[in-house]
Amino acid sequence: MSRKLKYSIFRYNPVDPDSKPGMQEFFLQETENLNLFVALNILREVQDPSIQFDFCCRAGICGACGMVINGRPGLACRTKTADLPDQVSLLPLPGFRLVGDLSVDTGSWFRAMNEKIRSWVHTDKEFDPQEQEVCMDNRVAEKIYELDRCIECGCCIAACATAQMRVDFLGAVAMNRIARFMIDPRDKRGHKDYFEVVGTDQGIFGCMGLLGCQDVCPKNIPLQDQLAYVRRKMGWQALRRLMPGQA
Length: 247
Ligand code: SF4
Ligand code: SF4
Ligand code: FES
What we know:
Blueprint: E1 4-11, E2 22-29, H1 36-47, E3 66-69, E4 72-75, E5 87-91, E6 97-100, E7 103-105, H2 106-116, H3 138-147, H4 155-158, H5 161-165, H6 171-182, H7 191-198, H8 212-216, H9 223-242
Parallel strand pairs: 1-5
Antiparallel strand pairs: 1-2, 3-4, 3-5, 6-7
Helix pairs in contact: 6-9, 7-9
């Protein structure tokens, strides 16, 4: 006997002056292997075409379907209803501009963050199409690949108390990006250069280390390790500046 699930969905359209924020209830019979992404699509198709939420890939790759599911940030397309209780509450990710209902504008946030941390490989080398490919040590390439798996879903920002308290906090996702460039031998920036970017309260020194970010990351990126790595390197830089010649 399948369950009838109750969905409490946050509804608010910020561009409609008559819209008031609140939760709206929907009921849907659970089917085998149902996930939240499909459930939301059925609700929108069959019960209310005005529900707003985002999706693109349906496979945990695009990062668009992040939302707060029963109090925990996660991806709708990777959440099976079988793993949820009979009542499911859905809220938009906090920390991002609300577009409407469950849809938030993560794109503008990530673009600004990537610009602030200058999120690209810095090299003076000119591209020469005739030149032979330069091989990278496999262990380094694998490490970079592991950190590059971030899908910019925003779940770590939504789970981060610091990011909720201060809008300029760059978050674990930015520290993960910085760690990725620090270990990339093609990037010619030194620790001094990185210090200018994340050696602040906006960056690594604003992190309280409670690791809500790591708990919710749907790609299981080792954020704890990257935060510790960047903190260690930037800590040394801070010491050098405070005590030149001694650290
Ligand atoms: S460990 Fe740092 S980045 Fe992660 S959730 Fe806590 S304050 Fe945010
Ligand atoms: S680090 Fe994880 S939780 Fe944060 S944006 Fe990337 S994939 Fe999402
Ligand atoms: S729809 Fe792309 S990650 Fe969920």
